[in-house]
Design goal:
single chain; alpha/beta; Rossmann fold; 3 domains; about 45% helix; globular
């Protein structure tokens, strides 16, 4: 059942419904939760308030857990928007308190853990992902680990393989960038940018998944196993920094791994690292032909981990780009829809969420949607393909590569 700390958080919910109908003082935004806003879902049970109320009833023994409850809990994409809107979080937002008394994502993850313990993880896609993580070290059912290295064959230069070779920086690719063809070009761009900046970097010859998927689906034991293995590997490399282009891996390393152990090297998202390269003059960027762009804040990078400026710094470093902020940006950004296991289990919910975000892109007249996350790239690219939209989806590192002074 719920831990003592999480049970306390359940009772801390004030039931004011800002998570369903947020009142953002400086934005006038009234929508934040994709699960609740999805057509047919505008019922209390599909909001985080409803999930918390259900958890309380379960904790008190007033109801029993069933498959329908489990389905709702697993449809949440863990974007953290409800946390940003929550009145209990408000004192932290206003910087009058450092004590965050409720963690909505942890409550949902704990709920999912109970679903697994009760044998109620019935969603085939989620069961397959967990089995694949256990057997193959990735959630996509790819059996041969050599597949994670195939993207390097098209680079035209050698990438060091750790730990056989030493390097100052580990480029942790993440499973989706290494294994999903639709977003793999971004990973190649990252490697080329690091090479052009003369960064001494390498990748793991046998990279394991970061484990965030396991944690988010409620399989705590599997997450801890992956985290322990990765921490041992990372700390044995002797690298100064670990840079990853995947915000989900970044979130795992920064916020989840400390529960298991300590990564000795500095952990950076690739936008933080490349922004530093530009700032120190190791990369010089030139003007690109005029293009109207906007930036989508990935939930795991922005709202959850607080990285807002580095991607924007890079965009502003490229002259010629007409950068326009969407109304819902930074901590108020609407989700892409791919997180929390939704991408593989509920693609129609992901696609609807992505199309809702595209409305924000169209509202500012942008022709290019920039982001910094493979899950966001995948969601927007697949969703836009189905609509025939002319909006292009780009990772910020792809634009950086195009603008580097050769």
């Amino acid at each position: 059942m719920f831990s003592e700390d999480l049970a306390r958080q359940i009772y801390r919910c004030a039931r004011v419904s800002w998570c369903k109908h947020p009142v953002f003082r400086d934005r006038g935004i009234d929508k934040i939760c994709p699960l609740y806003e999805y057509p047919g879902h505008r019922w209390e049970s599909f909001s985080i308030r409803g999930i918390i109320s259900t958890a309380q009833a379960l904790f008190e023994g007033r109801i029993t857990l069933d498959e329908k409850i489990a389905e709702i809990v697993y449809k949440c994409n863990l974007c953290g928007g409800c946390h940003e809107a929550c009145v209990i979080h408000f004192p932290v937002y206003m910087r009058v308190s450092e004590i965050d008394e409720i963690n909505h994502i942890r409550i949902v993850e704990e709920f999912r853990k109970i679903c697994i313990e009760e044998g109620l993880l019935r969603i085939p896609a989620h069961r397959n992902a967990l089995e694949s993580l256990l057997r193959y070290g990735n959630p996509f059912g790819v059996v041969r680990r050599e597949e994670r290295l195939k993207w390097t064959e098209e680079l035209g230069f050698h990438v060091k393989l750790l730990p056989k070779q030493g390097a100052e920086v580990l480029l942790y690719t993440g499973s989706i960038y290494a294994l999903e063809p639709l977003v793999r070009d971004t990973l190649k761009a990252v490697a080329r940018v690091l090479s052009m900046a003369n960064v001494d970097f390498g990748i793991l010859e046998n990279e394991l998944d970061d484990g965030l998927y396991a944690a988010q689906l409620g399989e705590t034991g599997l997450f801890e196993s992956l985290a322990e293995q990765n921490i041992k590997t990372f700390n044995g490399l002797g690298v100064k920094a670990i840079a990853t282009p995947d915000p989900h891996a970044y979130n795992a390393f920064k916020r989840y791994y400390p529960r298991v152990g300590n990564i000795e090297a500095e952990v950076l998202h690739i936008t933080e690292y490349v922004d530093m390269l530009v700032e120190t003059g190791k990369l010089k960027l030139e003007r690109l032909p005029g293009e109207t762009v906007t930036y989508h804040d990935p939930c795991n990078l922005g709202r959850i981990c607080g990285v807002y400026d580095p991607p924007r710094n890079l965009i502003k470093s490229i002259e010629g780009l007409d950068f326009r902020e969407m109304e819902r940006n930074k901590n108020y950004a609407w989700c892409c829809g791919a997180g929390g296991g939704v991408m593989i289990a509920y693609p129609e919910l992901m696609a609807w969420t992505a199309r809702e975000r595209v409305r924000d892109v169209e509202a500012v007249g942008a022709t290019t949607l920039i982001t910094a996350c493979p899950w966001c790239e995948y969601s927007f690219k697949t969703s836009l393909e189905s609509t025939g939209s002319a909006i292009k989806v780009r990772n910020i590192i792809e634009l950086v590569e195009k603008s580097i002074v050769k």
